[in-house]
Design goal:
Largest sheet: 6 strands, mixed
Order of helices and strands: HHHEHHHHHHHHHEHHHHHHHEEHEHEEE
Strand content: 5-15%
Helix content: 55-70%
Number of strands: 8
Length: about 550
Amino acid sequence: MLESRRDYMNKLSLSTLPKTGLAGLKENWRIDLQSGFLVFLIALPLCLGVSIASGFPPSAGITTAIIGGLLVSRISGSYLTINGPAAGLIVVVLAAVLALGEGDAMAGYRYTLAAIVVSGFLQVLMGVFKLGQLSSFFPASVVHGMLAAIGLIIIATQSHVMLGVTPEPGSLFSTFAQLPHSLFHVKPEILLISFLGLLILIGWPLIKSRIPAPVIVVMVGMLFAWHFDPDRDAAASGSKFLVSIPDNFLAGFYFPDFSKLFTVAFWEAVISISLVGSLESLLSATAIDRLDPYKRTSDLDRDLTAVGLGNMVAGLMGGLPMIAEIVRSSENVNNGAKTSWANFFHGLVLLLFVVLFPGLIQRIPLASLAALLVYTGYRLASPKAFARVMDVGKEQFLMFVVTIIGVLAVDLLAGVALGIVVKLAINLVRGVWFGNLFKIHFTIQQQDNDTLVVKLSGSALFSNFLPLKKALAKLETGKTIIFDFSDGYLIDHTVMEFIYDFRQNYEAQGGQCEKIGKALETFSDHALAARLMTADDRK
């Protein structure tokens, strides 16, 4: 019998997998260097923007990206991810600086560095004890709600920078409320630079140029800043509208202050940074695995350990926390990168640039960086993001909105916790047994030499499916796996999404997946919506 096309392609893919380590460097250094350089062009302005928006010195983000490239790339469990600071961490880091500093920005910065070191240590422990898959416990809509709320906060805070106005210190709602005041006191030349930056970010992809849009935004901003010279009246007080970094890169290093180690505010910062950083990093690594043309799978626990070590070093050297960043990683894949050496080269080029050309960085207008961040925030909280969640089901949209409100009204941890509580309550209302909320019932039996049957009993939920996920990860590739849902009760969206992803990955490796069982009710027309398989048989 002739082998199937899938088997052939699987063998071909495995036979041409890029080498790793020094052998991979020798084999792929040209394409990885090229990709690393193109990623550097995107990373430089984003690192600066995230740093400033987080209440850190501008060079802190560059320090983190350098560590992510030179150190983390050599010990991580992923192949194509790029490590560095990300917009999703702006909110938690800025909140830590404000809460710990109590009005003293430099003190808050150094206290937050200490929180980054401790959160990195927690991430190392999570990786060592193989807790990377605990990210699955967070419902997809809650995670999307958290990111959308972060996007809204970024838009609110950075809009003032785009207008050239500094708002009065206060709460998040105060920052929102001061937007009309900033609009009436706008600095025209700063607004022009910002507006042009947004236009470029929106329109540049239509040109399909290999030059990244952020590079054009920065170059245009530098040109107009040179023409307008917005800091001409600020010589005595220092730059107000341009990036301010020291001429000597080493002068930008600061050491953490652990004197608030035993305070509640400190540990709130630690938990927030480790939670958001771990979630974003694991989700990004998983997403990039799907884009990998060689269908390689990251070792998430090893990756989390590496990111944790990177964060410990970054905190000790004055840097921001890092994650596996999705935008730069996606560009890395699109550039044709083969191995993690592309991440290494991106960090190396950043180091060389900041050492050799600090003067160029000092000419970058803050308005251009703010435009980049506002655009990023919009992508996190765009109407499409709301519509995608609504398509999955009304209960998913409820969790999404509740999480956003919780994050905006209280803080990030409270918002995520509130979203999870709402999800658990919805499952109970739908008839899930309390004992089934956190315990799943399933069997895996061999039907014949090439077929395995995964039979579910009761409900499969975000809060209980981790044992199923671990069991499926151990199955031999190349088999036919039948998911028998005929005796199941409720299968929620998170589990449906997981099974879909598992099927995609498993079939890419030469296997086959099938499903048995017809749903009595689905909660929307979406293919991965939550569904009831059988009637509630409780007496």
